[in-house]
Backbone:
C-alpha cells in the first residue's frame, strides 16, 4: 500500500491509452460537464464528446443508484466517511485493477481530499495478488491508523477477509456490481452498495464502481454543503439575534427563564446569567404589568403573539420601561415548545412621553386659565374643537354647547356670517389676521366688543389644518375710551369756558376801570360843583340839574352792577338738559318784549316793528337760560331797528347736520364787521349810550349761555343795512 498512485501501475488495457486528440477532447468534456478527467477519458473512448451526451449516458446509471435499499446503505456509508474526515483518520481505498476500479478510486480519492480527508489506496494486480481483499493489506492499513476501508469492484465472493477486518476493528464499505447467488454468505460490512440486485439489469457494469463512487462522493459533498449552509445559517441567525438591540430571552412554557442574549444581559445589567436562570419570568413584573405579562404568555401559548408595555427595573435597580412581545417557538410537531420574549427598552420614550405629557398638561392648564379667550377651529369644517374657560364664561356656555358646533349654532346670524367671512378670508390669505373690533352676543353680558387675532395652523404638507384665535374683551376699554372722549370734550368745553371767562374777566376789568369809573367821575364832579357853588346859597335850577345828573349816573352804575351780577351768575348756574319747544318759547319772548317796553323807549319813531317767526326746530337744553338768549337777541333787534321807517324782524331756524341753527335778522342800523368779535364781550358797545340805551352785557350773556350748551354764536352785518345774529346748538338726539 502506498500514499500515492504507484508509478508502475498501468491501465488494464492499452486501448485506454488516449491519443493526443482524445486527450484534448476528454479535457474539454471534463471542463464542460464538470467531470473528473479519468471519467471524461472513459466517456470519450466510447464516442461521447458532448456534455449533454455524457449526462444522457450517466443519468440512467445514476438513476439505478436511487434504490431505497441502496440509499439506506449509502446513508450509513456517508455518515461513516464524514466521521473519518472529521477525526482526521486516513481512509483506505481498495480497488480492482480495471477501468471501473481505478476510476472509482480516483473519484473517491479526489472527493475525500477535497473535503479535507486523508487517503490511502491499494489497487492489487489480479495476476500477482489475486482477486479480492487481502488480510495483509488490512493489517498494514490498521497499523497505519486506518479505521475505514472502502472496496471497489473486488468481487462479492472474494471477501473471506471481511471477518478479519471486523476483528481488527475496521469498518468496511463494499461497492460491487456482482450478484450474490443463493447460498452465498453475505460478508460482514458497515454498508454494501450493490445496485445490481435480482430483477435489475445494470446497463454498463464496467462503470458500476465509478458510478457508485461518484454517487458516494456526491452525497458526501451535498451533506457537507448542507451542514455548511446550516452552520452559516445558524451563525447568521445567531449574529442577528446577538446583534439585536433588544433584550431577547427564551422562556419555557411555564414562563421560566431559559436563555438570554448578551445584549439582553447588558440591558438588564445581569453579570452572571446563572443568577437568574430558570427564574420565574412573571416575578420580574408587578401589579397590572404582571397581569399583562400573563396575558401575553397565554396568547403565545395559544399560537399568537402577545404584547404589552410595563415597568421592570434592571438587576442593578435601574428603572426601565419595556415594550414586550411574547411569541411561540413551535417544535417539530407544530406544538409550542418554548417562548421567545423580545423586550425593547423604551425608557427614554416613556420619559419623553412623560415630559411631553407634563408640558401638554402645563400648556393645557395655561390655555384654559388665560384671562383672554382662546379657541381652535377645524379648518375644513369650521367647527370648534377647543374653547378655553374665558371664552365659555363670556358666552355663558359649556363645552358641550360649542365643541363640534359652528358659530351659527349659538350666535345670531349676522354675527355668525361676519365670523364666517373672516375665517374664509383668513384661509385664503394664509397669514395672521387682526380684527380690531367685533361684536359678539352673549347670554349673560349682552353684546360685547372683542379684539380678535386669528392665524392658520398648517399640517405637514403646508395646508391649513386648524384656525387658532385669541380674543380680548375690550368692552370696558371702549367704554373707558368713550368716557375719556366725553371727559376730553367736557374739558375742552371747560377750557373754552375758562378762556371765555378769562376774556370776560379782562373785559370786566376794563369795564370796571372805564364804564364804572365814568359815572363815578360824573357823580364826584357834580357833587364837588354842588359843594363849591351852593355852599353859601340855596339850590337853583342849575343845582337841581346837577343833582339829576348825579342820580342818572348812580342809576346807570346800578344797572351796570345788576347786569354784571346776572352775567356772573350765569357762570355758576347749572345747565339743565330738557327738550325745549323753541317755537313756543320764541313767541312768548316776542310778546314780552313788545309789551314790556313803552314805544317811547324803543326810539323817537315809536313804530311797532313787524316780527315774523318761522317754524323753529326744538332744542335740548336749559329753557330758562335759552329764554335769556332769545330775550336779548330779540330786544336788541327791536332796539337797533327802531330808527328804521318800517322796522322788520325775522326769526328763523333749521337743522344742519348734527346742529340746530337759529337766526334773528333785522333791518336796523347794522354794524361794521371789523368789530364783530367785540360784540359778544362784556361792556363792548359799538354805539353811544345817547344813541341806544344799554350796558353792553346782553350779547355777552348770549355768548355765555350758548357756549355752556356746547354751541357757538356769530353775527353778520353792514352799517345801515341791518344785522343777523345766529347761534347753533347740538341736536342732542
Residues:
Amino acid at each position: 500500500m502506498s500514499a500515492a498512485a504507484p508509478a508502475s501501475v498501468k491501465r488494464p488495457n492499452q486501448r485506454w491509452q488516449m491519443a493526443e486528440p482524445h486527450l484534448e477532447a476528454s479535457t474539454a468534456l471534463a471542463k464542460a460537464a464538470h467531470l473528473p478527467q479519468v471519467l471524461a477519458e472513459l466517456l470519450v473512448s466510447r464516442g461521447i464528446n458532448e456534455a449533454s451526451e455524457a449526462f444522457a449516458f450517466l443519468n440512467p446509471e445514476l438513476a439505478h443508484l436511487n434504490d431505497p435499499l441502496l440509499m439506506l446503505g449509502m446513508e450509513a456509508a456517508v455518515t461513516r466517511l464524514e466521521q473519518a474526515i472529521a477525526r482526521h483518520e486516513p481512509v483506505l481505498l481498495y480497488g480492482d485493477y480495471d477501468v471501473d476500479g481505478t476510476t472509482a478510486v480516483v473519484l473517491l480519492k479526489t472527493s475525500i481530499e477535497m473535503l479535507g480527508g486523508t487517503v490511502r489506496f491499494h489497487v492489487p494486480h489480479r495476476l500477482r495478488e489475486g482477486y479480492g481483499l487481502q488480510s495483509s493489506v488490512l493489517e498494514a492499513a490498521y497499523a497505519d491508523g486506518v479505521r475505514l476501508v472502502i472496496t471497489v469492484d473486488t468481487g462479492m465472493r472474494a471477501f473471506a477477509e471481511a471477518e478479519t477486518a471486523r476483528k481488527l476493528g475496521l469498518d468496511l464499505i463494499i461497492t460491487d456490481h456482482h450478484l450474490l447467488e443463493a447460498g452465498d454468505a453475505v460478508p460482514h460490512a458497515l454498508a454494501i452498495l450493490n445496485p445490481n440486485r435480482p430483477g435489475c439489469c445494470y446497463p454498463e457494469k464496467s462503470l458500476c464502481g465509478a458510478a457508485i463512487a461518484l454517487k458516494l462522493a456526491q452525497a458526501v459533498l451535498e451533506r457537507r454543503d448542507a451542514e455548511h449552509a446550516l452552520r452559516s445559517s445558524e451563525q447568521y441567525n445567531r449574529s442577528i439575534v446577538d446583534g439585536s438591540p433588544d433584550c431577547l430571552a427564551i422562556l419555557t412554557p411555564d414562563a421560566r427563564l431559559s436563555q438570554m442574549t448578551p445584549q439582553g444581559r447588558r440591558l438588564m445589567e445581569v453579570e452572571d446569567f446563572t443568577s437568574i436562570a430558570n427564574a420565574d419570568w412573571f416575578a420580574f413584573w408587578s401589579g397590572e404589568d404582571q397581569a399583562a405579562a400573563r396575558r401575553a404568555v397565554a396568547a403565545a401559548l395559544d399560537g399568537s403573539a402577545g404584547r404589552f408595555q410595563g415597568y421592570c427595573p434592571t438587576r442593578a435597580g435601574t428603572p426601565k420601561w419595556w415594550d414586550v412581545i411574547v411569541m411561540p417557538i413551535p417544535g417539530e410537531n407544530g406544538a409550542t415548545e418554548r417562548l421567545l420574549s423580545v423586550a425593547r427598552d423604551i425608557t427614554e420614550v416613556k420619559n419623553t412621553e412623560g415630559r411631553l405629557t407634563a408640558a401638554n398638561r402645563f400648556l393645557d392648564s395655561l390655555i384654559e386659565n388665560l384671562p383672554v379667550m382662546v379657541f381652535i377651529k377645524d379648518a375644513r369644517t369650521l367647527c370648534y374643537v377647543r374653547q378655553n374657560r374665558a371664552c365659555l364664561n363670556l358666552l355663558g356656555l359649556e363645552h358641550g354647547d360649542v365643541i363640534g358646533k359652528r358659530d351659527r349654532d349659538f350666535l345670531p346670524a349676522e354675527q355668525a356670517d361676519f365670523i364666517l367671512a373672516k375665517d374664509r378670508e383668513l384661509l385664503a390669505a394664509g397669514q395672521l389676521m387682526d380684527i380690531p373690533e367685533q361684536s359678539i352676543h352673549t347670554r349673560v353680558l349682552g353684546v360685547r366688543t372683542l379684539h380678535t387675532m386669528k392665524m392658520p395652523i398648517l399640517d405637514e404638507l403646508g395646508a391649513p389644518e386648524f384656525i387658532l384665535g385669541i380674543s380680548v374683551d375690550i368692552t370696558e376699554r371702549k367704554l373707558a375710551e368713550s368716557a375719556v372722549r366725553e371727559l376730553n370734550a367736557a374739558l375742552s368745553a371747560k377750557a373754552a369756558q375758562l378762556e371765555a371767562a378769562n376774556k370776560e374777566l379782562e373785559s370786566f376789568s376794563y369795564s370796571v376801570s372805564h364804564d364804572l369809573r365814568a359815572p363815578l367821575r360824573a357823580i364826584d364832579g357834580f357833587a364837588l360843583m354842588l359843594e363849591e357853588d351852593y355852599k353859601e346859597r340855596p339850590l337853583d335850577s342849575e343845582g337841581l340839574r346837577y343833582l339829576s345828573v348825579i342820580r342818572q349816573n348812580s342809576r346807570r352804575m346800578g344797572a351796570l352792577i345788576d347786569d354784571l351780577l346776572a352775567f356772573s351768575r350765569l357762570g355758576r348756574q347749572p345747565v339743565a338738559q330738557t327738550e325745549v319747544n323753541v317755537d313756543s318759547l320764541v313767541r312768548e319772548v316776542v310778546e314780552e318784549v313788545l309789551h314790556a317796553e313803552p314805544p317811547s323807549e324803543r326810539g323817537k319813531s315809536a313804530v311797532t316793528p313787524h316780527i315774523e317767526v318761522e317754524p323753529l326746530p326744538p332744542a335740548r337744553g336749559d329753557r330758562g337760560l335759552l329764554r335769556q338768549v332769545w330775550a336779548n337777541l330779540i330786544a336788541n333787534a327791536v332796539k337797533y331797528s327802531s330808527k328804521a321807517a318800517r322796522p322788520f324782524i325775522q326769526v328763523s331756524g333749521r337743522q344742519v347736520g348734527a346742529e340746530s341753527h337759529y337766526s334773528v335778522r333785522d333791518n336796523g342800523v347794522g354794524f361794521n364787521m371789523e368789530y364783530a368779535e367785540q360784540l359778544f364781550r362784556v361792556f363792548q358797545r359799538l354805539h353811544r349810550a345817547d344813541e341806544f340805551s344799554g350796558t353792553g352785557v346782553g350779547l355777552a350773556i348770549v355768548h355765555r349761555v350758548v357756549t355752556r350748551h356746547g354751541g357757538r354764536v356769530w353775527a353778520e352785518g353792514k352799517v345801515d343795512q341791518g344785522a343777523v345774529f345766529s347761534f347753533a346748538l347740538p341736536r342732542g338726539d
